[in-house]
Amino acid sequence: MTDFSIIRRSLTSRLFSTASTVLTVAVAVALMLVLLSMRDAGRRSLERGSGNMHLLVSADTSPLTSVLNAVFYARAPARALPLTRATELGKNPMVEWALPVAQGDNYKGYPTLAVPREFFGRFEPVAGQPFKLAAGKFPADDFDIVLGAAAARGSGLAIGDKVVVTHGTGSEGGHEHDEHPYVVSAVLAPTGTAHDRAVFISLVSTWIMHADDFRKKRGDPEEPTAANLRESEKLITGIYVRGKGRAGSDTPATLPQLFSELRSDPTLTVASPSQQIDQLFKIIGNIDKLFIAIAGVVLLSSAVTIMLVMHNTMELRKRQIAVLRVLGASRGRVFSLVLTESAILGLLGAGLGVALAAGGAVATAAAVRGQLGLVIEPRIEVLWAVVLVGASVGLACLAGLLPAVRAYRTNVLASLRPAA
Length: 420
Description:
The chain is of the alpha+beta class. Helix content is about 55%, strand content about 15%. Strands 4, 5, 6, 7, 8, 9, 10 and 11 form an eight-stranded mixed β-sheet that branches.
């Protein structure tokens, strides 16, 4: 009988104990792996989403809130700005472009972002990587609509389909703007950012829709059109700003001056997306470390579980070990059999943990996407997986040392003596 056969029979003879031990290790490995992998993936997603803008101007309550709302679609900003603020900002000699945007509607839970025509030609969702079309063409009409890759996939819409957006940012509760249907003109290629789940409409169209609501409430009989929109009806919720700099340089020398100038206006909230992302990770850093520490404790506890299970079974296996010794097995072989069995428990648990982590990463990414609008690639980092599998096997071997020593010291004569 080979050593592997002996170990296999030992594990299957106490199947419930083996399965529960493996599951304990798997949960610990999966928890640790999901936390580590999703932390890194989340940071990458946040860093990508702001693209080639340098500053974000809004009337939100804080810079961090404005970035989460306007760039990652957490929710619609509560306060609006007049279009004139963007127009004036665009004339600033330190500004290359100032793109006004507006939020506040959705299509089946996918947030809309109202943008000017030049948005797709100037803003890059990932710096150096402009929007690319997967199908159709960029809007030619005010009521053409462009779908992000995730929005197109999730909604099932295709080029030429008619779309009616709903007021508000939730999938339920708002009224439909059915008097002003859109037509899908394009679907964007995936960018790996929160913009993949956005539905892009024109600023003019959103002004017309909401002006129609306001005028009807006031009893104004004039139907709004692009030509008769009033300045008070041209509202925006944010301005994407890129500073003017030298060719080939991504950070203009005048950016600090522009930032200070804009912040001097108390009615504006000015945010640097990159700084706010760093601030966000500083805020959650301690919590992040706490969760990882908890996962580490769970991993250690799984090693203790292996030790207890192996140790408690030694009393029942004394006779088996004694028989092996009589058949010629050396003390060293018995020691290695117990240690190998412990390592296999760790390996099986780690393997199952990696599989559970893959499913957990997908579920976590979906939850983050639904709650915060962050598009995170649900993938498991190979390096972390290899490290954790190795750590699990190492801890399992350490846990098996005490039972292995006990097996090594088993008294053959005493163990074979018939019970009184």
